[in-house]
Amino acid sequence: MKKRLLTLIGGLLLIGTLSSCGGSSERQADLANGETIYNKACIACHLKGVAGAAALDDKARWEEIAAKGMTTLLDHAVKGYTGKYGVMPEKGTCMDCTEQDLFDAISFMMDKAAVKPAN
Ligand code: HEC
After folding, report:
1. Fewer CB within 10 Å, N side or C side of the chain?
2. Is the shortest distance between the CB of 73 and ligand 1 below 6 Å?
3. Domain for residue 71, yes or no?
4. Which CATH number is 53's domain given?
5. Lowest model confidence (mean pLDDT) among 17-21, 45-49, 105-109
6. Taking the model in full, what pTM does it have?
7. Average of pLDDT values for 74-93?
8. Is 95 in the pocket of ligand 1 (CB under 6 A)?
């Protein structure tokens, strides 16, 4: 009985560990950090929409982007992405940015554009 209880506890711990990793939707956005990153790197293209980037006040474009969901967007920001509008460079040219920094910057831009990601 005691052994079964330990196995049960072990199983629960394992489930807890597994569900806490992955899923970017569980990430918390630090919008203040996002603004810093945005001002450092993303602003060059994303303020006015240079080279096909979505301008901060272009709500229609940001709605189209938000609909892809955060998991996809973070992946595109980290690895870079070529779409129908142009080329989003790897890490948005912020080579020392962490995934969290990029997540924060994306969240900041969406907040400014007043859109919510699909996930
Ligand atoms: C050199 C210009 C440039 C810089 C700098 C830049 N971007 Fe982009 N970004 C683009 C372009 C162009 C697109 C549009 C690609 C398309 O949809 O064709 C884009 C698209 C995106 C998208 C949407 C991707 C998708 O799947 O639709 C996100 C998110 C994004 N950028 C985040 C960032 C972040 C975060 C930064 C700063 C860390 C950044 N970008 C810096 C040019 C840039």
Report:
1. N
2. yes
3. yes
4. 1.10.760.10
5. 17-21
6. 0.85
7. 98
8. no
Tell me which of 43 and 8 has the higher pLDDT: 43
Q: Ligand 1 mean position to 108 CA, how many Å?
A: 13
- Whether 8 maps to a domain, the answer reads no
pLDDT grade for 18, boundaries at 50, 70 and 90? very low
- Residue 45 beta carbon below 6 angstroms from any ligand 1 atom: yes
- State the residue range of the domain holding 36: 28-112
pLDDT classification of 43: cutoffs 50, 70, 90: very high
Count of the separate structural domains present in the chain: 1
Question: For residue 81, is it within any domain?
Answer: yes
Contacts 24+ apart (CB under 8 A), 32-37: 33/100, 33/101, 33/104, 34/101, 34/103, 34/104, 34/105, 34/106, 34/107, 34/108, 34/109, 34/111, 35/108, 37/94, 37/97, 37/101, 37/102, 37/104, 37/105, 37/108
Minimum-distance ligand 1 atom for the alpha carbon of 102: 35
